[in-house]
Amino acid sequence: MGQAALKTLLTGNSLAGNGKDKIPAEPYDWIAFYGRDGMLEMRLKPAWGGKKFVGRWWLMEDGQICRNFGTTRQQEGCWRMYREAHTLRFVPSRGKAVEGNAIMLPGNQLVRIDAKK
Length: 117
Known about the structure:
This protein is mainly beta. The protein has helices spanning about 5-10, 110-115; strands at about 15-20, 30-35, 40-45, 50-60, 65-70, 75-85, 85-95, 100-105.
């Protein structure tokens, strides 16, 4: 996917996934919200401790999506995303990144999760 398509797809929405070899379905292994201002929030499923990470996301001109949850470049990871039927496949292109599958969910799903607590 190109930079413009990814920006439209991600900005203000959430990605939810279940890892490399599973089709994304509830309960998700993780959910990440891509803020309009470049802020990124991700929460792991409760069975993994429910830990929340906050960082930044950006798009490269060549269509890579990148994120960093830390303060050093060693904590940065980038992917290329591909549409596959009803899912998105993300393939590592550099840094701390893992392969996986996800689906798009409208808006900030983390706010909805926090409201249920």
